[in-house]
Write a structure and sequence with these properties.
The protein is α/β, with parallel strands linked by helices. The chain has eleven helices and eight strands. It is globular and about 45 Å long. Bound molecules: 1,3-dihydroxyacetonephosphate (13P). 1,3-dihydroxyacetonephosphate binds next to strand 8.
Length: 252
């Protein structure tokens, strides 16, 4: 049986607090009462406190777009796990390709962030995915395998209860070029096999695998119907309440 689908909106660096509040208000109405699906949004850090108060008692959970591995200290610009938990934020996206491409994130730093996040009680959404050059060179599965093996090094089956993997082909992010369902399912099946090897059959099967990269209302249902696609990490379409709600409904 497939795990409960998990749809997360990654707002990236978009929205003032006022804009975030307006979007949350529209979104809460649009997804009110929906069950059989887990929903979360990841606004910018600056909006977390305000949005957290709005989400109390709703079926939408709060996520952060990054988290540091240390508990405190001289790490200018970073945010510690306990700082997120204090705000009612229970989930952190880690190792997004934009962090890897533009901010020097590596498999090793992803591993440190994920390990600390999970140890602190956060759910970690660890992102992996190949670039266009890597796909064209036939390296997709080996790149993703390296990211999974190094990124999850040392995590146990118990840790994996709070682990989600997002497969986001870099060439599909923000481009309108969605992976075909066959391309996505092939990589998801490979990730699933790696998780089964590391965590055992039961836990490996229970970790949610999200697809990300130009997910829209009109392609969500087909992607989510694939055997190893258990959710979506949605960028652009999560900034429109109606589109995000339509993607959530496609998962139900
Ligand atoms: P888009 O949905 O805008 O392609 O972004 C995907 C993404 O990067 C989500 O984390």
């Amino acid at each position: 049986m497939k795990p409960t689908p998990f749809i997360v909106g990654n707002w990236k660096m978009n929205g003032t607090v006022a804009e975030a509040r307006a979007l949350v208000e529209a979104l809460e109405t649009a997804v009110a009462g929906l069950s059989g699906v887990e929903i979360a949004i990841a606004p910018p850090f600056t909006a977390l406190a305000s949005v957290s108060a709005m989400l109390e008692g709703s079926n939408v959970q709060l996520a952060a777009q990054n988290v540091h591995w240390a508990t405190s200290g001289a790490f200018t610009g970073e945010i510690a796990p306990a700082m997120l938990i204090e705000l009612g934020c229970g989930i952190a996206i880690i190792g997004h390709s934009e962090r890897r491409q533009f901010f020097g994130e590596t498999d090793e730093s992803v591993n440190a962030r994920a390990t600390a996040a999970i140890a602190s009680g956060l759910t970690a959404i660890v992102c992996v995915g190949e670039t266009l050059a890597e796909r064209e060179a036939g390296e997709t599965l080996s790149v993703v395998e390296r990211q999974i093996v190094r990124g999850l090094a040392g995590l146990t089956a118990e840790n994996a209860q709070r682990l989600v993997i997002a497969y986001e082909p870099v060439w599909a992010i923000g481009t309108g070029k969605v992976a075909t369902t066959a391309q996505a399912q092939q990589v998801h099946a490979h990730i699933r096999a790696l998780l089964v090897t590391q965590f055992g059959a039961d836990v490996g099967a229970s970790v949610r695998l999200q697809y990300g990269g130009s997910v829209k209302p009109d392609n969500a249902a087909e992607l989510l119907a694939q055997p190893d696609i258990d959710g979506a990490l949605v960028g652009g379409a999560s900034l429109k309440a109606a589109d995000f709600a339509a993607i959530v409904k496609a998962a139900v």
